[in-house]
What we know:
This protein has helices spanning 14-27, 40-47, 51-64, 80-83, 88-95, 102-126, 129-143, 150-167, 172-179, 181-191, 198-213, 217-242; strands spanning 67-70, 74-77. By secondary structure, the protein is mostly helical. The chain is elongated, with a radius of gyration of 21 Å. The model has no long low-confidence stretch (mean pLDDT 87).
Amino acid sequence: xxxxxxxxxxxxxxxxxxxxxxxxxxxxxxxxxxxxxxxxxxxxxxxxxxxxxxxxxxxxxxxxxxxxxxxxxxxxxxxxxxxxxxxxxxxxxxxxxxxxxxxxxxxxxxxxxxxxxxxxxxxxxxxxxxxxxxxxxxxxxxxxxxxxxxxxxxxxxxxxxxxxxxxxxxxxxxxxxxxxxxxxxxxxxxxxxxxxxxxxxxxxxxxxxxxxxxxxxxxxxxxxxxxxxxxxxxxxxxxxxxx
Length: 243
């Protein structure tokens, strides 16, 4: 059994270290689907940590869908493709050092196209005057931002899409976008390393904000679609180079 190879962890961030250790073994396939993990007390002894630390780590894995915990029966490894939640995406990125395989990237981009174009349409339909002011303030910030400041550009880009999601008046859309924030910013951070792409994206933002202010639903959705297609080809090239 692979868990026999566990050795004591370092003292800092014990829970996070436990989570990463367990995730690595599960995502790599070193631990099989439906395999029952050793008791928490035994795992704690092998890792050199307390039982509560191991329990909290396993609860985190259960929330992500990696394991199932049943009282008095123990913890069993899941097939994460069947039980995994969106929170697992961040773990997959960390396990792969920020890289995405082609199928996962395709899935993310396809889902983003569906959700973001609808966000733009609904934002144009439902935005409030205050939300228009927020968008215009953000566009002003973007105009004064150094294109080479990748962190600032990534932050502003995410805030723009989050404002659109909030403006839809659908409570689920901003929550969904926030749940993808680590994955979203990981990808956009790679994208914006090419500072030549920044101004083109910010121009799309400016035109989108105007369409939303005018409550032009068709134009807002079309601009979002064009912006995403513009970025998709370049993002794929960037990721293939960094792979």
